[in-house]
Automatic annotation (TrEMBL):
Domain of life: Bacteria
Pfam family of the protein (one): DUF1697
Organism per entry: Novosphingobium beihaiensis
Record's protein name: DUF1697 domain-containing protein
Alphabetized Gene3D superfamilies for the sequence: SP0830-like domains (3.30.70.1280)
Length: 178
């Protein structure tokens, strides 16, 4: 069995309220094992046979729509990918953990898409941004709440949805992954 992390976007924000107990139950009904939620924002650890994560992402997005009537982006990553999301983030250790994020993406942006994001964001804020493997690394230097570098802004430039977690949360999740 492989240990995975499912990161749900749009959970417990904007009216999409869902208890973590209900989310765990939905995973267990789908016969995933060792299901555990971490923080009340849509982070689910689970065990399942090793398989490509994109199929799991589609399954969970469908599950959210069918069971809870919530349209949600879902990123599924292995323990190694979560570790890379912390260790490969060039801003980890140089910025405040609560402001340093990994923005998990549905796909890998092209260099041209990343350049469009950078040029469109120029002059809009102090954020530092770097490309990663199916993710962006972001240091929201002045805080996330006031930033103009939103998920919607990123999605429009890169052409794919995503969801972000700060490196402090990711480190806690990684520790729970064993």
């Amino acid at each position: 069995m492989t240990r995975y992390l499912a990161l749900f976007g749009s959970i417990n924000v904007g009216g999409n309220r869902l208890t973590m107990a209900d989310l765990r139950y939905a995973f267990e009904r789908e016969e995933f094992t060792n299901v555990e939620t971490v923080v009340a924002s849509g982070n689910v650890l689970f065990d399942f046979d090793e398989r490509p994560t994109d199929g799991l992402e589609e399954l969970f997005a469908h599950m959210m729509a069918e069971r809870f009537d919530i349209d949600s982006f879902v990123a599924v990553r292995t323990k190694e990918e979560v570790r890379a999301a912390v260790e490969d983030n060039p801003f980890t250790g140089s910025g405040e953990d609560k402001f340093v994020h990994t923005h998990f993406l549905a796909g890998q942006p092209t260099p041209e898409q990343f350049e469009k994001l950078m040029s469109d964001h120029a002059g809009r804020g102090a954020e530092r941004i770097a490309p990663g493997q199916r993710c962006l690394y972001i240091d929201y230097v002045d805080g996330v709440g006031r930033s103009k570098l939103t998920s919607a802004f990123i999605q429009r430039r890169l052409g794919c949805p995503g969801t972000a977690r700060n490196v402090g949360s990711l480190a806690r999740i990684l520790a729970k992954m064993g």
